[in-house]
Amino acid sequence: MTATEARPRQALDPADLDRIDRYWRAANYLSVGQIFLVDNPLLREPLRPEHIKPRLLGHWGTVPGLNFLYAHLSHQANKRGTEMMWIVGPGHGGPATVATAWLDGTYTDIYPDVTQDAEGMRKLFRQFSFPGGVPSHNAPEVPGSIHEGGELGYSLAHAHGAAFDNPGLVVATVIGDGEAETGPLAASWQSHRFSNPARDGAVLPILHLNGYKIANPSLLARIPEQELLSLLEGNGYRPHVVSADDPETAHARMADALGSALDEIADIQHNARESGRVSGARWPMLVLRSPKGWTGPHEVGGLPVEGTWRSHQIPLAAVRDDPEQMRALESWMHSYRPGELFDSSGAPLPEVCAPLPAPERRLSASPHANGGLLLKDLRLPDIRQYAVQVPEPGTEHHQATRVLGGYIRDVIRANPRTFRMMGPDETTSNKLDTAFEAGGRAWAAERLPTDEYLDPDGRVMEVLSEHLCQGWLEGYLLTGRHGLFNSYEAFVHIVDSMFNQHAKWLKVTRDLPWRRPISSLNYLLSSHVWQQDHNGFTHQDPGFLNHVLNKVPEIIRMYLPPDTNSALVTTDQCLRMRDTINVVVAGKHPALSFLSMDRAQAHLARGAGIWEWASTDDGAEPDVVLACAGDAPTRETLAAAALVREHLPELRVRVVNVVDLMRLTAAHPHGMSDRQFDALFTAHKPVIFAFHGYPSLIHRLTYRRNGHENLHVRGYKEEGTTTTPFDMLMLNDLDRFHLVMDVIDHLPGLGVRAAHLRQRMQDERMRCRAHTRVYGEDPPDIRDWTWG
C-alpha cells in the first residue's frame, strides 16, 4: 500500500475548475466574515457599523493562499482516495482552517450549535478572535489541527513525526514565508533523510511564498529563482513551482503540479516497498507564489495593499467608522459572489462541496489530527526483570541509564510501530545505547562500513538538533503514538519554547471533550550538573525544572529518582501516563543503589518518604530533618547523616527523600496535604534540604507550608567548571561536610557545643579540594564511600 495512488495525468476539466474555484471563493468569503463581522453574515442588507466587530483581530494576508491549497488538496484526496492531513505553518492562518472545517461539515459535527446555515455562519463569524470564542491561530479548538503555528519553525518537524510509522498517510505541510527563515525549519528540510519510504508515510512540503512577513519582505521570496531551486534541490527535493496570480490559470497549474507530486510520492513508495531500497529518493515538494492578501482590497487610502505587507493583518482597519472602508468591505465580500456559494438558508451549495472527499477522508476530519482516537496502550515488559539487587542500602553501585537502556530496548521490541526514542546524538553518551539492539538509529542516507547501528528501520532517532527531536516526537505523540526524548540536562533548554507550546496545547485540549487524551511527552535528562567528565560550566544547568514549574500543575510531573530501581519504576510509570509532560532526571555514572524494587515502587507511590534505615529519630520528633532530591544530593545527605550519627549521636535525625517534586506543593493535584507535609518534615524543626537544582525551586514549591522559615535549601548556585564530582558539589556547598555545618548552624544551641566539629568539616573540605588539585581526582574515601 502506498500513501497515494498514481493516476494518469489529465488536465483539469472546466467542471473541476469551477468546483475548486467555488470552494476557494466560499472559504475566502467565510474567512473575511470571521475577521470583520458579528452579524449580517450573508449580506442580505447593507452593512452597518453594528454588523462590524468592535475589535478587529486576526490576519488576512496568508489566508487566501491557504484556502487555495486546501481546495486543491481536498480535490486530489477525493480523486485518489488518499488519506491526508494538513499542517499549517503560517502563524495566523486561523480563519482559513476554521472556514474550511465549517465548509466540510466537520466543524458542525464537533460543535453542533454552529450549524451549516445563516445562523451557524453568524456564530462562526462572531466567535473568531472574540471573547469566549476561538483564537486567531490554528488552535486546538480547530478540528484537523495538531499544530497551532503561534510560534514559527516547527511545522515540517511535526509533519515528519506524524508520518513516521503511518505508511498510508500523506502529510501536506504549508510552510510560510516567515517560518522559512527560522533555524528549526532550516534544519527540518533534512528530516526526510530519517524517513523510510517502505514503512513510513509521506510528507509533502508546500513552501508558500507570498512575499512578505509582518512588515518586511521575506527572504526566500526575494532571492533569484535559480538560487531558491538550488537550495531546495540541495536539501534533497524535487520542487514544483506554481506562480498564482490569475485564479483561472492558477487552478490549472496547481492541479497539475500537485498531481505530479502525488504521483512521484506513489512511485517512491512503490519502489521502496517492492525493492527494499530506501535511500536516495528525491522527494517532491511544491512552491506556491501568490500575492499576499490575494483577492483582497487592491489599495486602501491611496496605498497599495494586495501584494504588500499591508495586507498581513487587517486591510480595512477603520471599517467600522469610515464609510468608504465600509463600502470597500462590502464590495470585497460581494466579489466572491456568495449567491453562487450558499443557498437561501445559508448552507453551502452542493457544487461548492463537490471537491471534498468522503467524510472520513476530509482533511479537517483526519483521525490522525485527534491522535487520542488512535492511541493504544504500550505493551510494557515486567519492570521487575530489570531490577538490580540491593542486599543492603548504599553498598552496591549501578548505572541508572545503562539499566534503563535495556528496559527501553524491550519496550521498542514489544511496540515496533508505536514507540520511538529521540535524542540529539547523545544516546550512547547517556549510556542508553543498549536500546540500539532493538533496531538501531533511523537513517535513510548513505551508509559506510565503519558506521554503527544505522538502520533504515531504526527506532532510535538521533540528529544534532533538539528542535527536530522535540518536533518529531510531538508530531508522533499528537497522532496517537508513544515516545521518549533523552537529552543532556543543560541543553534541553534549547526547546524551552517548544515545551511551552506543547504544554499550552495540552492545557487547552483538556477542556475539549472531543479531543482524546494523548500519550505523555517524556523527557529523560542525564549527563546532569553534578558529574560532567569532559565538560564544564556550559554543561551545568539544572534550570529546566524551574521552567517546567511555570506551567499549570495538572499537566506537569517532575521526578528525581535517587537510584537505579527508582529510575526504572519512574520511567515505567511515565510511559503509562496521558496528557502530561514528565521530566525524569537520572545520572549515567555508577552510583549507589538504596532501594530494592519493592521499596522503589512504594517510594514512588508515596512520592516522598522517610528512610527509616538512615534515620535516628526512632519514630519520635526529630531534632533536624535532612531532606534530599536527586541522586548526588541523596548520596551527600546520607553521608552527612552518617557523620552526624558518628559525631553527634545524641541528635535525632530524620532522613526524607523526595522522588516526585510535585508532592511538595499543595497546589498540585497529587500534592500532599498540610498534615502529611507537617508529619514528614515537621512544622517547627530545621530542615536541611539538599536539592539537585536551583534552591529557589524548592522554596517556590513550599512557600505556603508550615515551617517554611525553617527550610534551608542547598543546591546549584551557578558555580561550576571542569572538575571532579565532589569538587563540583563543594563549589556549590552541597557536599556532605557543608550539610553537617548547616545542621550545626541551624539547630539552636548547637553552634558553640559543636564548634570543633564544624571546624573539622571545614578542614575536610580543604583536604578534598587540595587532593583534587594534586591528583586530578577525588580522594578515595569520598569516591568509594558507601553507607554503613
TrEMBL record:
It is an enzyme of class 4 (lyase). Pfam families: XFP, XFP_C, XFP_N. Its cofactor is thiamine diphosphate. Residues 13-373 form the Xylulose 5-phosphate/Fructose 6-phosphate phosphoketolase N-terminal domain. GO terms for biological process: carbohydrate metabolic process. GO terms for molecular function: aldehyde-lyase activity; magnesium ion binding. Its EC number is 4.1.2.-. InterPro entries: Phosphoketolase (IPR023962), THDP-binding (IPR029061), Transketo_C/PFOR_II (IPR009014), Xul5P/Fru6P_PKetolase (IPR005593), Xul5P/Fru6P_PKetolase_C (IPR018969), Xul5P/Fru6P_PKetolase_CS (IPR019790), Xul5P/Fru6P_PKetolase_N (IPR018970), Xul5P/Fru6P_PKetolase_ThDP_BS (IPR019789). Gene3D superfamilies: 3.40.50.920, 3.40.50.970. Residues 588-787 form the Xylulose 5-phosphate/Fructose 6-phosphate phosphoketolase C-terminal domain. Keywords: Lyase, Thiamine pyrophosphate. Coiled coil: none annotated. HAMAP family: Phosphoketolase (MF_01403). Belongs to the XFP family. This is Probable phosphoketolase.
